[in-house]
Amino acid sequence: MEVMKSLSDVADSKQQQEQQQQQQHFHVLAVDDSVIDRKLLERLLKGSSYKVTCVDSGDEALKYLGLIDHDDQKPTDSSSLTSPYPQQSSSEQEGSKVINLIMTDYCMPGMSGYDLLKRVKGSSWKDIPVVVMSSENVPSRINMCLEEGAEEFLLKPLQISDLKKLQPYLLKTLDQPSSSIDSSNNLVVEEIGDDDHDGQSKINEEINKGSVMNNTNASSISKRKAVTTETSDRIPKMKGLVVA
Amino acid sequence: MEVGQMQRQWVDYTKSLFLEGLLDGQFLQLQQLQDESNPDFVVEVVSLFFDDSEKLLNDITRALEQPSVDFKKIGAHVHQFKGSSSSVGAQRVKNGCIPFRNFCEEQNIEGCIRCLQQLKQEYYLVKNKLETLFAMEQQIVAAGGSIPMLELSF
């Protein structure tokens, strides 16, 4: 009994280690026309050890994905194409270009996030999870995006606590069943507060080293996510430190 | 002034900005994203915000001065301003954008002009306060101290 138990522990921790290593190579394509939001998103994602590529428009995103000329291109020979970006024939990776998640703003001049979502879902990248972000909580807009295949719709401004909502989608791309996720231990994600409505503690201060992260949910905005599709994401509050 | 005193001053000043409604919880998020690997994160983001805002305010001002006012364009600028101010936690600026957008939709030029005035006031106020705050931070760091972490809840 004892032996069996410790063997499975070893297997678990190996799996955890592997997951951690793989997470450090998660590549997110972030699309937002606001330079401030790109900076924020980049910092949030890098804080979880993800690799981030930021572009400022839907067109640039399509270029990056190699979709600019053709919707469902499955090239056998790319020599006739003038695009400087390599074409992809598999949805997730080919050669050096791996994308695990696309995060896009909804409201952008030119191509909207919704248009980009449609293009992606109609292309060879269709299996990549797409998360749409918006500063406006418009139910019809949210439903439209979800129906078009967006995995998630997040309200802006994004917060540290929103990152944990991305984990299931990223881990899915590793072909791991999501039930094996133990987000409190595996993932290098900073857990600062949660959608916690149970009341806040009184004001207190810490005059201390700047690098110590405190557990706080100061922004008591009622809904971080516009549409709640599952209650299982109400993970209890956990403390965590960013491994920068 | 010794470091501890400077830090306490910083804490008091920061708290006042929250109590006056100039900043909201999003600003705290920015502070929490600042660490040893990203020691100037807040200043960097806020600087981007300042640059972006000056441009937006100029564009809006010019657009309102045109013989034929393009309310749609102004609305788009205001939407952008609302987004950026929201992302940095500049609460009163963000709130000032809401009636402005309504006036744009109504194509109410008087309302727009009033809102622009109000918005400029709020923006320059928070800009001023934040610049003061950053100056205090520089002093603390120069004196060998570190910027405190705040835990606030409202």
TrEMBL record, chain A:
Residue span(s) of domain Response regulatory: 27-171
Biased composition (Polar residues): 76-86
Sorted UniProt keywords: Phosphoprotein, Transcription, Transcription regulation, Two-component regulatory system
CDD domains: REC_typeA_ARR (cd17581)
UniProt cross-references to Gene3D superfamilies, sorted A to Z: 3.40.50.2300
Region (Disordered): 1-25, 73-94
Chain positions found as 4-aspartylphosphate: D105
Biological process, per Gene Ontology: cytokinin-activated signaling pathway; phosphorelay signal transduction system
One Pfam family it belongs to: Response_reg
Alphabetical list of SUPFAM superfamilies matching this protein: CheY-like (SSF52172)
Tagged with keyword Transcription: yes
Organism: Rosa chinensis (China rose)
Name used for this protein in its record: Putative response regulator and transcription factor RR-A-type family
Top-level division of the source organism's lineage: Eukaryota
TrEMBL record, chain B:
Domain of life: Eukaryota
GO MF, any single term: protein histidine kinase binding
Cellular localisation: Cytoplasm, Cytosol; Nucleus
Alphabetical list of CDD domains matching this protein: HPT
Known role: Functions as a two-component phosphorelay mediators between cytokinin sensor histidine kinases and response regulators (B-type ARRs). Plays an important role in propagating cytokinin signal transduction.
Swiss-Prot/TrEMBL domain comment: Histidine-containing phosphotransfer domain (HPt) contains an active histidine that mediates the phosphotransfer.
Protein name as catalogued: Histidine-containing phosphotransfer protein
Taxonomic source organism: Rosa chinensis (China rose)
Taxonomic lineage of the native organism: Eukaryota, Viridiplantae, Streptophyta, Embryophyta, Tracheophyta
